[in-house]
Amino acid sequence: MGMSRVWGVVLFLVVLVFAQGVLAIDATHVISNSEDWEDVYSAMLYASLSGVESDFLTSTSHGPVLLDAISKEKSIEVISSKDSPFVFNYENEILSRDYAGASERVVESANLELVEDLDVRNYIVVGNSYGYSAIAVTPYAVLTDSWVFLADRVNIAEIDEIISRRGVGDIIIYGYVEREILDALEKYDPVVIDSGDRFQDNIEIVKMYKEISNAKQILLSNGEFIEREIMLGIHPILFTGRDNVPDQIGEYLKGSDITVGVLIGNDLINAATNIRRTTGLSVMVKFAQGARGQTSGVSAVEGLDLFYLPTPTLDLEVYSIKYNKASSQIEITYHSKSNVPIYVKGTVTIISDGDNERVGDMEPVFIAPSDYKTLTYPDIVIEGGELRADVFTLFGEVASSLDMKLEGSFDLGIINVIDRCEVEVNYVKYNKQAEVFYVGVKNLEDVDCYVDVELRDVLKSGRRQTIGTEGSVLVRGGKKMKIEIDERMDDGDLEDNPFVNVVAYYGEREEVLVKVFRGKFDLDIDMFTGMTYLIVLVVILLIVVLLVLWKKKRDDEW
């Protein structure tokens, strides 16, 4: 065989090796150097799809510490944010440690730039508002050589251009995304996974993973942070919830052949314990790693490197709990300290002179961010002295997955209050220019009333949701009020909602709204605000005046 033929065979084999995977870098280790979670996630996914190890910085001081745990034989590629790196010129620091090699790549958007270096044609698109959707799909993405795009209505045009230019194998839209994203990607005939419940969506992607690789071991997480093992994609990830294990997760595990769960971090011990008790799953906890940089003494450990993702803040408290003798009902008022809407479902045990009486909610109840909600339990007759109430309430982002809990024991105060408020809702309108719902409310009595309005089962981007006012609105006695609910709705959303279901909570006490109005209304749509019509009218009048003056001047000249 001639030398030229030998080199030809060698060249063919090299090309063949690289054609078998998505490896597009010479480095054997990737480090993300960014404060932006999207950069960190994308760099870690880039490394996993390239078949190399990876790490990420969590602070400026973490830079030298991280290198203590990486072999000097590694050739390191640093992917640094242009606008928000933790360490400037990290490449030089690595080279000064005598590593086999080092290079630094500066990116404006790792999520849109790194995909160009990979030989992938499969894509998963998730919304970029919160990180748990990206975490849920990571194992499936690695298993199927898929790039995960973190999308919103601002960058979807660029994502669409990248996909159309590179070509599409399979594409999945996972979790809630804005309608603009659905519309832009509709031409690719994507698989859409969006039940409105992040736990149910999580189960669906795990099922898809197991259809390809029938894993018997899973990772357990709450989806609120990036951790190195999570990003490897070796095992599917199942969300546990924070305090309470959602029913869907428990039922799925009972019916599956999964035998081992590895809990990442120690903040979810309660949920993991519940999983072990209810499903029999063997659960191990990964909560620490070996200390880096240690030179002598007893082997120490340190916490896992975790990069926290943007997540909703969920918190709930009991604002007050009373027994109203005038109406013979228990009134419990919750205060949501969350920055997103939540649902609550409570059980209250009344303890009176050794006797117990238990009341509770049949269905979860909606509470807007930072709002108060009073739930009443009528037909209660209590006789006795010292009263207490034990409260056990589950709550969460969606009605079907209440993964957090509030419990406590409270003194049960006694009041004797008759609420004289009576209100009614007359209409519901949506103004496209202002992007706001207007709900017409009339106070039928001569007492001031506070009103909190909800619009139930509004279809937005194909998903039913409840929206409402963030706090109650004062409506003076005998007066009318146009209550506003800010919500961006596009034309498709408005077409999907010819009617709206209205629930108005109201009462004389601002934080204790014990009465309810329910109704269904046609949704009227206004194109412009009153100010816009006024401006148009002024412009028309101005044009008329100018025409009259011009005509008068012309007549005078003649």
Could you write a compact summary of the structure shown?
Strands 26, 27, 28, 29, 30, 31, 32 and 33 form an eight-stranded mixed β-sheet that branches. Strands 19, 20, 21, 23 and 24 form a five-stranded antiparallel β-sheet that branches. The protein has 558 residues and is of the alpha/beta class.
Description of the structure:
By secondary structure, this protein is an alpha/beta fold. Among the domains are: 100 residues, Immunoglobulins (Immunoglobulin-like, Sandwich); 105 residues, Macroglobulin (MG2) domain (Immunoglobulin-like). Helices cover 27% and strands 36% of the residues. The strands form eight sheets. Strands 26, 27, 28, 29, 30, 31, 32 and 33 form an eight-stranded mixed beta sheet that branches. Strands 19, 20, 21, 23 and 24 form a five-stranded antiparallel beta sheet that branches. Helix 2 packs parallel to helix 6 and helix 6 packs parallel to helix 9.
Kindly list the characteristics that best describe this protein:
558 residues, alpha/beta, Immunoglobulin-like, five-stranded antiparallel beta sheet, 33 strands, 36% strand, globular
